[in-house]
Amino acid sequence: MNKDILIVYHSETGFTEKYARWLSEDLDCLAISLDSAKKQNLKEYKKILFGSWMMAGEVQRLKEIQEICPDEDNCVLFVTGAAPANFADNFTAIHTALQNLDFDIKYFYLQSGLNYQKMKFRNRMVMRMMNIMLKIRKPVGENEIMLKSILKNSFDNSRREYLVPMENYVLTGSEEQK
Ligand SMILES: Cc1cc2nc3c(=O)[nH]c(=O)nc-3n(C[C@H](O)[C@H](O)[C@H](O)COP(=O)(O)O)c2cc1C
Q1: Which pick of 21, 55, 115, 142 has the fewest CB atoms within 10 Å?
Q2: Is residue 44 part of a domain?
Q3: Alpha-carbon gap, residue 121 to 15, rounded angstroms
């Protein structure tokens, strides 16, 4: 087992955890939840991969990243979201959030899906409200048309191969496959 790398994830409905598990198998390293990571001494790890998810344009619990990996050079962020990877708003949101933290690290966005069954009640209600809103008024612009089409039902678009650029970056410093 690679004891230099640690994966720390925050997940509510399981997608970020699934990506963390795939990463831990591919990189042969440990994956632990953010809550359990906060109780441990993480100083021995040379690289920490911090995973979380997008909610209404915000990366959940991102502020805790500096507590988990204070050194920019040792830290990589991955963020899951329902929107496809070509949805620029998510990249802008992640980029801006990191800028606001003054934390200059490499990040990767991974499309996941939606799981209405596993959502907390409050979040399920938020999504239902968004669905109703998009139903009663004509969607404005490409983004709203895309959102209307993906938000209706649970779906799973997570793919193990989406991790390849990140795994190459972690292992070689380059996203390209050698
Ligand atoms: C209330 C709510 C808001 C969401 N907002 C966004 C969003 O702004 N952008 C996006 O791409 N996905 C959004 N999603 C989808 C989640 O980011 C996606 O399902 C994520 O993978 C959940 O991670 P988890 O399964 O690890 O909890 C939202 C989900 C919920 C429940």
Answers
A1: 142
A2: yes
A3: 17
Locate 14 and state its tokens.
């399981």
Closest residue CA from atom 2 of ligand 1? 55
From the alpha carbon of 15, which atom of ligand 1 is closest?
25
- Is 146 a pocket residue for ligand 1 (Cβ < 6 Å)? no
* Structure tokens that stand for 59 in this block: 């990366």
Q: pLDDT of 119-174, one tens digit each?
A: 999 999 999 888 888 888 877 787 778 888 888 899 999 999 999 999 999 999 88
For residues 57-68, b (16+ Cβ closer than 10 Å) or e, as one string?
A: eebbebebbbeb
Nearest to 51 by CA among 70, 72, 27, 33: 33
Q: Is residue 177 part of a domain?
A: no
Residue nearest atom 1 in ligand 1 by C-alpha distance: 123
CATH code: domain of residue 166: 3.40.50.360
Asked if 80 and 16 count as a contact pair (C-beta separation under 8 A), the reply is yes
Question: What pTM did the predictor assign?
Answer: 0.95
Query: Does ligand 1 come within 6 angstroms of the Cβ of 82?
Result: yes
Tally of domains within the chain: 1
Residue 55 Cβ < 6 Å to ligand 1: yes
Please give the radius of gyration of the chain, using alpha carbons only, rounded to the nearest integer: 17
Q: Tell me the residue length of the chain.
A: 178
